[in-house]
C-alpha cells in the first residue's frame, strides 16, 4: 500500500467505511442556494451592474457601440496615461480590432504575447506599461473578469504591467460567477480545462499595513475595461 | 509530534495585555474587518441560508473525504501533477526539501499558506541554505521582523507603520517615509525582482476541486498569481480536508469566504490552477506538485463531537469577534491558529491536551464566534466539550476537581443550595462596594482581577418568587 492509499484507508477507517469509497456519494445540496440561481439580469442591467461594481473598486469603464469606438477609447486612455509600451494577448478579437497599427501610429510599441523572437516573454511583459486582454467572460454581479489561459492568452499579461486593460463584448457578460463555474465543470468533463483560470475584480490591493488600503502591491495598480455593445 | 509553547498560556496572556500598542492595533483592525463583514453580508441578503449551504456542502465533503480526496489525487495525476502525502509536519518539510534539492533551488518565493506555517517549512529551508521569501505584504513584514503571523488574514496586524518604515529603511539603505503608498511601492519593487528569479513558487490552497484536480486561491495582492505563474516549479501545500466536489460548489464559497474574511464581495483574484502549463503556454509553472498534509487531521475525523471543525474555511471571522482575541492578539495562543478556531483546533491537531488543553479556556463562551462562522461551526460548544475532555483525561488540577465535587454536593440538593445562598448573602456587606465585588475571596480573585462581579441581589430569586407566586395565586385579573 503506498502512502496515498494508506492515507485514504486511514480516513475511511475513521469515517467507519471498511475501505475508501469508490462510489460517488449521494448529495442533497450542490452549488449555490436555489434562490440565488434564480438571480438573472437583463443585458442592460448586466452592463450597468458590471460598471457600477467595477467603478466601486477604482476601475474605469467605458461602454461603446462599435469596435472603432473601442479603439478610440483605448487610444485616449493610453495617451492620457502617457504609455509608450504595451503587451497584448495573441487573440483573434484583438487582431480584428486592428489596434497594432493604430497604436504604433501613435508612437506606442505593441508586443504580442508569443511573438518576442529570442526575448523572454516574461521580461517583455514585465517591462510593458500596460497589458491588453480580451477576456473570456465577465460577471455583472461583482464586476469580475474571467480569463482562461492558453498559448496566446498568457497570465502574465494581466499581471505584470502596472495597468491592465480588458476589452469584451456585452454578450460575454453573465449575471453571477456560478454560471462560469458550471462552464468550468463542463470543460473539465470534456478534458478541456486551461492550465489557469483567473477571476479578476479590481486592482491588486492590500490592507496589511495598519489595515490601510493600498493599491498595486504586486499586480496592476489600475484596471480599465471597455464593453462593446 | 507536538511542539511546545515556550511559556504557559497565562504568562503569554500577561505578556500580550501589557502591550498597549498591540491591543489598540488589534482592536482597530478587527473592528474594521467585522464591520465590513456585517455590511457586506447584509447587502448580499439571506446570509443564514448561505451559511446553511456552506455548512451542508462542507459537512458532506468531510463525511465522504475518502471519496473526494481519492478523486482529487487521481485527477491531479491525470493532469501530470505530482502528489505527495505528508502524515505529519516533519514529513511535509522533508518532502519539500526533496523537491527543492531535486531542482537545485536557490530561491523559494512563497505566497500565503497557513499549512506551510503549520509545518514550519521556512526554517528548514534556511537551514539548508535555500533563500525563502514570504511575498504576501503582511507576511513579508513579519518575516523581516523574524516573527510569526498573529492573524489568519492580517498577519502583521500587530505592527504599526513606523516600525515597518524603519525595517524597510534598513533594507533600502535610506530612510523611507511611513506613508502606505511608499511602503507598498518599496515592497513591490523588491519582490518583483525576486518573483522573476525564483526557482520554486509556493502557494497554499483555499480549496481543492475533487472532480478536476484543481487548486483554488483567494488573494488580493497578486503574489499568489506571481508564484504560480513565473517560477518553473509550483508547489502547493494543502490541508487534506480542503476539498469541494466541483466548481459549481465553489460559487457558495466565493460568496461566503471574502465577505467573512475582509468584508469584500470577492477578492481581487480568485485563481484556479489546473496543474502545470499546457502545450504552447509560455508562462505558468512547468511542474506542479501538491503536498497533502494530514498532521493530526485524521484524529478529528469520525469524532462526533469535533468532526465539524474540519469544515473551517480559515476566514478569520471568529477571531475578529472574539473578546479574548481582541484583548490578547494572536501570539498569545502559542501556535499558528489563533482565536476561537485556534483554541479548538490546536489541541485536537496536536492531540496533546497536556500542553494545549488550556487553550479552550481562553474564551468567555459568549458564542460570538459561532454566530460569526460562515460554515456554522459550533465553536463555543466545542470549547466546552474540549474542557470536559480535559477533565475526563484527568488533566485538571486536583484542587479544581475537589472544589467541583464540593460544589456538586452543595448545589445538588435544594436545601443545601438555599443554605449556601444565605451564607453568601451574609458575606455581601464585607465584599461589595456600590453594588459590585471588586476583589473576591480566593478563587474569585482571578475572575475579579480584570472586572467587577455584580453583587448578588438583596433578595434572592427564590424569595422573590415565593412572594410573586403568592400574589399571582391570590387572583388579579389580567384580561
Ligand atoms: S472556524 Fe469558522 S469563523 Fe473561524 S476561521 Fe474557521 S470558518 Fe472562519
Describe the structure.
The complex is a heterodimer of chains A (229) and B (479). Chain A is 34% helix and 22% strand. Chain A contains eight helices and twelve strands. Chain A has a six-stranded parallel sheet, sandwiched between helices. Chain A has a four-stranded mixed sheet with strand order 8-5-6-9, covered by helices on one side. In chain B, 53% of the residues lie in helices and 11% in strands. In chain B, strand 11 and strand 12 (436-437) form a beta hairpin. Chain B is globular, with a radius of gyration of 26 Å. The chains are: A alpha/beta (229), B alpha/beta (479). At the A-B interface, helix 1, helix 7, helix 8, strand 9 and strand 10 of A face helix 2, helix 3, helix 4, helix 8 and helix 10 of B. The structure holds iron/sulfur cluster (SF4). The site of iron/sulfur cluster (SF4) has 15 residues of chain B, from helix 14.
Quick tags:
heterodimer; A: alpha/beta; Rossmann fold; six-stranded parallel β-sheet; four-stranded mixed β-sheet; 8 helices; B: 479 residues; alpha/beta; 13 strands; 11% strand; binds iron/sulfur cluster
Number of strands of chain B: 13
Shape annotation of chain A: globular
Range of strand content of chain A: 15-25%
What would the average pLDDT of chain B be, to the nearest integer? 90
Summarize this entry quickly.
Chain A is α/β, with parallel strands linked by helices and 229 residues long.
List the SSEs and their pairings.
The complex is a heterodimer of chains A (229) and B (479).
Chain A (H helix, E strand, L loop, with lengths): L2 H13 L18 H4 L5 H14 L3 E5 L2 H14 L4 E4 L3 H6 L1 H7 L3 E4 L8 H7 L2 E5 L2 E3 L4 E5 L14 E7 L3 E2 L3 H12 L6 E5 L4 E2 L7 E2 L6 E7 L1
Parallel strand pairs in A: 1-12, 2-3, 2-4, 4-7, 5-8, 7-12
Antiparallel strand pairs in A: 5-6, 6-9, 10-11
Chain B lengths: L8 H9 L2 H25 L2 H17 L1 H14 L3 E5 L2 H14 L4 E4 L3 H6 L1 H7 L3 E4 L2 H9 L15 H12 L7 H18 L2 E4 L3 E3 L4 E6 L3 H7 L3 E7 L3 E2 L2 H16 L6 E5 L13 E7 L3 H4 L16 H5 L1 H6 L10 H12 L2 H4 L11 H5 L6 H14 L5 H14 L2 H18 E2 L2 E2 L6 H5 L4 E2 L6 H13 L6
Parallel strand pairs in B: 1-10, 2-3, 2-4, 4-7, 5-8, 7-10
Antiparallel strand pairs in B: 5-6, 6-9, 11-12, 12-13
Helix pairs in contact in B: 2-12, 3-12, 9-10, 16-19
